[in-house]
Amino acid sequence: MSGLAFNSTSQELGFTVTGSSGTTGYVDVYIAKTHVDDIAKVKAYIDGNEANYAATQLSDSWLLHFTYQHSTHTVVISLGTATTQPDQNSIGNYWIYGLFVAIIVILAVSLGVVWKRRSRKS
User: Fold this and answer.
1) What confidence tier does 57 reach under pLDDT thresholds 50, 70, 90?
2) What is the DSSP letter of 52?
3) Strands, sheet with 54-57, edge to edge from the N-terminal-most edge strand
4) Closest to 102 (Cα-Cα) out of 77, 119, 66, 65
5) Can you give the residue ranges of every domain in the chain?
6) What is each CA distance from 83 to 5, 32, 38, 51, 57, in whole angstroms?
7) Cβ–Cβ under 8 Å, residues 70 and 26
8) Which residues pair with 65 in a beta bridge?
């Protein structure tokens, strides 16, 4: 995974994934319910094409999960249009939230790659 970025203005998380052709990759993203009240507004895209995802409701967040066939892809997750304009005090919270989401995505993708490599060795 590379090029991880969260745009607080457009409410989009983007990154690039790369893997060996012929293998399956997956994305798990946790999104705090304080940032997304309606999961139906969230859209996931792979190379500009909308991807179907499974959403699991947790106590304080949503878990989005989807798979794709490896090569190199650009993934964008749009959290939907912000309902209110953030004030100066909340901008720092978006940065922290973006960093949190980035860490979760990095861990999820890394674990997926390690798991795939181990399962091929078995």
Assistant:
1) very high
2) -
3) 24-32, 61-69, 54-57
4) 77
5) 2-121
6) 21, 15, 11, 24, 21
7) no
8) 28, 54
Q: How far is CA 59 from CA 31, 34, 35, 120, in A?
A: 11, 11, 14, 35
SS3 of 72-106? EEEEEEECCCCCCCCCHHHHHHHHHHHHHHHHHHH
> Which tens digit of pLDDT belongs to each residue from 71-92?
999 999 999 854 444 444 444 4
pLDDT digits (tens, 9 = 90+) for 19-48: 998 899 999 999 888 888 789 999 999 999
Residues in the chain: 122
Helix (H) or strand (E) holding 17: strand 12-18
Cα–Cα distance between 77 and 64 in angstroms, integer? 10
Dihedral over Cα of 14, 20, 25, 30: its sign: negative
Give the three-state DSSP class for 49: strand
In single-letter form, the type of residue at position 102 comes to: A
